Every structure is written in structure tokens, then in C-alpha cells.
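How a chain folds remains the central question behind the approach discussed here. The record that follows shows the chain in one-letter code together with its fold in C-alpha cell form:
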Amino acid sequence: MLKKILPDTEIVYVKAKTVSKFRQDFDFIKVRDMNDLHHAKDAYLNIVVGNVYFVKFTKNAAWFVKENPGRTYNLEKMFIWDVARDGEIAWKAGKSGSIVQVRAMMEKNHILVTRRSYEVKGGLFDQQILKKGKGLFWNMC
């Protein structure tokens, strides 16, 4: 369906473990208990990490295999090297590289959140009537 709407769209899959490792490597703390802000930040990190992996491996997987025959690579060290292909720079390594922009974005806490409001009717008085018995709410008071 998405391809019909946006024909030039590329769908990139990222494992949660990969983004979690990126968070650990660059000291991005995830706080679930405070609010739902971490969902937006996770989405952003999925884009960053996914783009790097896509440019490195998937965008032209045949080229990668052909240009690197028998080469092994270490995914643990993916972000300590520059990642670019065909003029597209996905990641600049180093303290003054891409991490500067990622840190600036992760420090922002003014995420626009939209909530859907809706009204539910009839739930309170549409309940099944039961005989007085053990385990019912009114008997526990």
C-alpha cells in the first residue's frame, strides 16, 4: 500500500537490539517511567541507525558482496568508521561527526504529541446483571 502512495519509498528494517546497542555506545539513556517521549526518540534513532545500515549493506547488496569478497566485518564497530556510498554520506565518524547532530536532536524535549480524543457511550449501564455472590466488587467493600 505504501509503495502505491509513494513509489520512491524505501522501507528499511532495523532490529531493536541494534538501536539499543547504539544507545549504549553513545550514552543515550532511555527513561520509560517519566513519559512517552522515549517513543519519539526511539523513532529518530531507528531512522539514524537504519540509514547507516541501509547505505552500508542493503542499498546495493550485490555491490557490497562484489567489492568485499570474503571480507568479514564487525557490526559492533559500525559507527567508528565513516559510512558513505555513491556520494551519500550516512555517517561521519568521530566526536565532531554525525554524532553532534544526533546528540542535538536527542537533547530536544519539545516533541509534538497528538492524542485522539473519543467518547464512549453506554458502558456503565450495559453490564450483565448478576446475582449477589462472592467475588463481586460490591461484596469486597
Summary: The longest strand covers residues 88-91.
